[in-house]
Amino acid sequence: xxxxxxxxxxxxxRMTASAASALIASRQLSCEELARACLxxxxxxxxxxxxxxxxxxxxxxxxARELDKLPSKGPLHGIPFGVKDVIDTADYPxxxxxxxxxxxxxxxxxxxxxxxxxxxxLILGKTDTVEFASGGRKALTRNPFNGxxxxxxxxxxxxxxxxxxxxxxxFGTQTGGSLIRPASFNGIYALKPSWGLVSREGVRMSSMTLxxxxxxxxxxxxxxxxxxxxxxxxxxxxxxVKGLRVGLCVSPVWHQIEPGGEIALQAAAKxxxxxxxxxxxxxxxxxxxxxxxxxxxxxNSEGGASFLPEYVNAHALLAPDLRAKVENVxxxxxxxxxxxxxxxxxxxxxxxxxxxxxxxxxxxxxxxxEAPLGLHTTGDAVFNRMWTLLHAPNVNIPVCRGPANLPVxxxxxxxxxxxxxxxxxxxxxxPVIDSDPDAxxxxxxx
Length: 446
What we know:
Elements: H1 3-6, H2 17-25, H3 31-49, E1 52-55, H4 57-69, E2 80-84, H5 111-117, E3 122-127, H6 156-163, E4 169-174, H7 180-186, E5 189-192, E6 212-217, H8 220-229, E7 245-248, H9 259-274, E8 278-281, H10 291-306, H11 308-313, H12 320-326, H13 334-354, E9 361-365, H14 385-389, E10 394-401, E11 407-413, H15 419-433
Parallel strand pairs: 2-3, 2-4, 7-8, 7-9
Antiparallel strand pairs: 1-3, 4-6, 5-6, 5-10, 9-11, 10-11
Helix pairs in contact: 3-4, 8-15, 10-12, 10-13
């Protein structure tokens, strides 16, 4: 779904950020008009989708009017963002969906928020999340395509808000698969940048080694637009799908694939092959098969350190599964943790070395399949954890609908810190892979 086609939309809330940005820059659309369109969509739909924890319409309109008085600060000027409620904002509470911090106001922006706000972005509100983006309470958010299904998590509200046209951008975070999996379940685009590329200052973390800030959008151009705010400059080297070397990686956990995930991966590979790409099976070295267990050890051990303050000061309010991390219920030994760190450290340069003349990008599942039924689950991050631990950049691209008529996507994986190149490749292949680029133009679950 390119930015040009979206300029034909009459409802500003349905425009891509790129299209809205161009109209704001040419004064064909005001910041207030865009904000009001998004707020109207939220008012009409969020009683069902329940993506938001905090939105103050009066405050949003005042900020939009102020932005209309100011000279443009760049392409993000006036573009609304949703912010996952584990990320601090100066003008809204940061509750982390926890009773421990109900109504807590931090009074300052997290670095990732401050950067886009400083470039004219409009912070619309806070989106629902799994508690602490880790465990405990689930978000109340429902999948916009079918309200009986999860939107995924932990970035539940952010993914659903972008998919349902409440906002063109939303921040999420990923420790296992909390950005990419909801993107797959909601039929939208997402970038999980290389680890460390976006500051985590002001973001509640559960794992120092894994947590990564990223964002959702409805096209690759918009992912690139937001990336530019973080000095991830666009890679303008031409990408020709014909001859592109694509490594088809089923990953060591393929035995957990579901019909929807297999259909999506096979369809993406077939479409790329028909477009002239060279798609070949990519077998990872044997040590990579241990990364899933290494992720488990690291996330639980570091989670124990992260949630120790709440364990000590608000024990009764801390969810049992988060207490279990502090109590080391899995009995992760010092030796196992060190082995896990060492394995990840050794596999990362091996992954980097795979890219070159014989490999441009890796194609792999974004999720086991379609969004599961029920709000008691956010799905399994089994197909995401390895790539998160490897610190590699990931982009989700929607592919098709599965047997339950729910979206399923695939992940493009790039070399560490080569995010701009990965986005350039994603822009080239998205029109080939995404068979239903205008799916969002239809009314979703009513």
